[in-house]
Amino acid sequence: MNVKCRMQSSECRRSIPVWLCILHSAFCIAAAAHAQIVASTPKGIVVAHDGIVELPGAWSTPGVQTPEAVASSKDQIAILDPLANEARIVELATGRGKTVRTGETPIAGIFIGRALYLLERDARALERIGADGTRASISIHADPAFLRERNGTLYVYDRATGLIDEITTQPFAVRRTAKTAAFGSDFEIDGRNAYIVQPRSGKMAVVTLATMKAAGSFDVGAVPVDLDITSSGTALTASTLAIADPAMKKVWITEGAQSTGQAFLRGFFRALLGLGLFGGRSSQFPTGIDRVFVRGGRWYAYDSSSGTLYRFTKRTSKVIAKGIGAQRFAITDEGVWVWSDEVRRLQKLPGDG
Between the N and C ends of the chain, which has fewer C-beta atoms within 10 Å? Predict the structure, then answer.
């Protein structure tokens, strides 16, 4: 689930069900009490905890007090603190780092080359911090909630307005803007489309990236809240979409767009008609899962209310961990790594075979 802490109560009322807001509040309280992040990088698992950032067995460096988001590349990692308006940028090879002040409430970041792009929600800005420390910022719409990247182009979804800004890096500017559904709980892109999950209406809106035009809005279960995509959705290969629905305790699985918006509409509609409550192309869970992850050939679902992590296929699911925090695990090709408070170190989950 990509709902952030510091969400205003009015946003909850307009965008997602009350029960999900209560769940979100409980999660945020836990996150504030245990400010830790576990993140997978090309150099290994990095952990931000207790005011430090470390690559266990390699290096440790000062961090931030309330880490809540992370961005990484093959060379660097950035730990974001939206409460203190800071980012800690660290070289993965050496552990050398620097702390930079940011605009108000940095909630997401992406590296393109050596430059870090920060989405600053309350500042209503997207900021670029170059490798040499030079900075630039552009203004965006109210309530920017998600930052995504495709082929060096950035996309920002503004939750309150339902606008998607397409942003180029050379020049650093908004190129096009699309109008779509407001108050989405997740925003993802593949090689062809942008997808906006709408829990209140039980739908998913689609925007075609080539034209930056809305392609329709389609029914998805009861209360869809989170989405992950298995592939890039190239001209030859359609993406597979996995959608978490805590109200129905299911992950819905369907294909993304292959050609035109109308072809997507027909394929998506047929796929959903074929889904039964306890069968078909979906997985049933004993609890209300609200996050879904696809890593290579491994599929995972997570229930943030109980801290339960599942491994699943299109027909079966199994519990592999209980009572783990929402940001205390990282999924890699080798399995799942979890930060343990008891032993103060990373552990690989033994049940994820």
Answer: C
Contact 159, 145 (CB under 8 A): yes
Residue 107 and residue 322: Cα distance in Å, rounded? Answer: 27
Q: How far apart are CA 178 and CA 260, in angstroms?
A: 17
Distance CA 150, CA 163 (A): 17
Sole residue written with tokens 């999660």: 27
Contact 191/234 with Cβ under 8 angstroms?
A: yes
With beta carbons less than 8 A apart as the criterion, state whether 79 and 116 touch. no
pLDDT tens-place string over residues 27-85: 443 444 445 899 999 999 999 988 999 999 999 999 999 999 999 999 999 999 999 99
Instruction: Please give the Cα distance from 12 to 316 (Å, whole number).
Output: 32
Query: Rounded CA gap, 239 and 213, in Å?
Result: 19
Q: What are phi and psi of 216, to 5 degrees?
A: 130, 175
Q: What is the mean pLDDT of residues 288-308?
A: 92
Using an 8 Å Cβ cutoff, are 251 and 244 in contact? yes
Tell me: pLDDT of 184 over 90. Answer: yes
pTM (2 decimals)?
Answer: 0.83
